[in-house]
Design brief:
Blueprint (H helix, E strand, L loop, with lengths): L3 H6 L1 H10 L5 H41 L5 H32 L20 E6 L11 H8 L2 E2 H7 L6 E2 L2 H19 L3 E3 L4 E2 L1 H7 L17 E2 L4 H5 L6 E3 L5 E10 L18 E11 L4 H18 L4 E5 L11 E9 L4 E12 L1 H6 L2 E3 L10 E2 L1 E9 H11 L7 E2 L5 H4 L3 E2 L1
Parallel strand pairs: 4-8, 7-13
Antiparallel strand pairs: 1-10, 2-3, 5-6, 8-9, 9-15, 10-11, 11-12, 12-15, 13-14, 16-17
Helix pairs in contact: 2-3, 3-4, 5-12
The chain binds one RNA strand of 90 nucleotides through helix 3 and helix 4.
RNA sequence: GGAGGGUUGGCUGAGCGGUCGAAAGCGACGGUCUUGAAAACCGUAGACGGGGCAACCCGUCCGGGGGUUCGAAUCCCUCACCCUCCGCCA
């Protein structure tokens, strides 16, 4: 969420952001929020005066009683005041709850460098790397994988349902090899490896922005928990409510987890093969950074993900997302898309975003020199995350790109130590 | 799943319904001393919100949320979490 102060001081910027992000439903909420907040502030000014008066009189009663004097007259006078305070506090609670709920519906402001656009077609291709493989006889990954028994889509459907493929044999080993390759690389880069919970509570999901709006995208299980749609959620929540030492920033984490998404409403070619699943694996980077350093961190994270794609021998491009395709919580976002020769289309395998202080405000993750024992003002940290990388589409592109005429797959050099062979059979 | 005990400031830990935002110790910060440091001594110190040019003033916060009361860290209800014992379990 944005800080209330931002809405008060820059309501026009917030309104512009809502429109730029094409989230027009948020505009009436902004209006309601601003008026509720104004009402609350004037109420509070009045209420705080009453509270001060009540406190003073109660203190006087206390002092008299301690001296053994009678205070019945004072107590009678304060009763009305106390009742009025109570009414005020009730109204204040209502308004606070309203403001709080509405605040969750206001999207983050796009960074000035983000281009305006109404949808995906206006994303900007920043760079393209590698040579796209093309030609006759290149098969889509589902044909390759099913022919060799690396992936059994039908079995997954039987066990659970559509969108839950089963990896077998060299397919499963490829998953394990990628896991190690990604994590080892990120640890080399200085990230701390995390194995987080795969279920989170509503507070965590709210802090990172999955709730309340995207509730339908998560699987909810018993006891009010949600299956994580990305490890961004548990990992970003690691420092909830803390005041971090600025000298310790940036904090850089990486995590391998399965991710669970309901993906309601998807259809057609999007859901073919590994293109869109309800359960998939992903290695994620999560960074908590100083505000003045967060955009350098965004570039660095994107570069790390890109280098992995280069090492896997995949052709890819980097997109700068336009305002309308960026999503609710992000200030700036890059997508990396790999070329899928078997499908002749681009597939998103990574999304790297800077949320600035949007998540930190709800997380109450702050920093200052010296940390919780430090001096001076606290500031909200900036949070970032990025995939490095999402497995299914990486695997799809990898199988299709490195396929041979005989239906085998040449294993990229960097994965050979992990797989112990140079071909998938 | 059953029974009991807890949750207080960066940490440990006191706290009778009435100057308690909260003792004390540790830690932190500033200073004295020292060539420097340590020790010792003196002092300063919470977070969040509102108001004021400012010194400063006001409000809220003792796990979360409600309640009782003129007044709640202290009493009541409720939820969450932690600990101990029993049961079950990879």
């Amino acid at each position: 969420m944005l800080e209330l102060r931002t809405l008060r001081e820059r309501p026009d910027d917030v309104r512009a952001a809502i429109r730029a992000k094409q989230l027009f439903d948020a505009e009436p909420r902004l209006d309601e929020l601003l008026s509720a907040d104004a009402e609350r502030r004037s109420l509070r000014r009045e209420l705080e005066g009453l509270q001060a008066e009540r406190n003073a009189r109660s203190r006087e009663i206390g002092e008299r009683k301690r001296r053994g004097e009678d205070a019945a007259d004072l107590m009678a006078g304060v009763a009305d005041l106390a009742a009025e305070v109570k009414r005020g506090e009730e109204r204040d609670r209502e308004l606070a709850a309203r403001v709080d709920a509405l605040l969750l519906e206001i999207p983050n402001l796009p960074h000035p460098s983000v281009p305006y656009g109404e949808g995906p077609e206006q994303n900007v291709v920043v760079a393209e790397h590698g040579e796209r493989r093309g030609g006759e006889g290149l098969r889509p990954h589902w044909e390759l994988a099913e022919a060799r028994g690396w992936i059994d889509f039908a079995a997954g459907t039987a066990v659970t349902g559509a969108g839950f493929p089963v990896f077998l044999g060299d397919g499963a080993r490829l998953v394990r090899a990628l896991t190690s390759f990604f994590l080892d690389r990120l640890v080399e880069e200085g990230f701390t490896e995390v194995a987080p919970p795969l279920l989170v509570n509503a507070e965590s999901a709210t802090a990172t922005g999955q709730l309340p709006d995207k509730e339908g995208q998560m699987y909810q299980v018993a006891d009010g928990f949600y299956l994580i749609p990305t490890s961004e959620v548990p990992v970003t929540n690691l420092h909830r409510g803390q005041i971090l030492d600025e000298a310790a920033l940036p904090l850089r984490y990486c995590a391998f987890t399965p991710c669970f998404r309901r993906e309601a409403g998807s259809y057609g070619k999007d859901v073919r093969g590994l293109n869109r699943l309800h359960q998939f694996d992903k290695v994620e980077m999560v960074v908590l950074a100083l505000p003045e350093e967060s955009y350098d961190a965004l570039e660095a994270m994107t570069a790390i993900a890109e280098r992995m794609l280069v090492d896997l021998g995949l052709a890819f491009r980097r997109l700068l997302m336009c305002s309308g395709d960026m999503g609710f919580t992000q200030a700036k976002k890059y997508d990396l898309e790999v070329w899928s020769p078997g499908q002749a289309r681009w597939l998103e395998v990574s999304s790297v975003s800077n949320m600035e202080a949007f998540q930190a405000a709800r997380l109450e993750t702050r920093c200052r020199p010296g940390g919780s024992q430090g001096q001076g003002k606290t500031r909200l940290v900036h949070t970032l995350n990025g995939s490095a990388l999402a497995f299914p589409r990486t695997i799809a592109a990898l199988l299709e790109t490195h396929q041979t005429e005989g239906g085998e797959v040449v294993v990229p050099t960097v994965l050979r130590p992990y797989l112990g062979r140079d071909r998938l059979r």
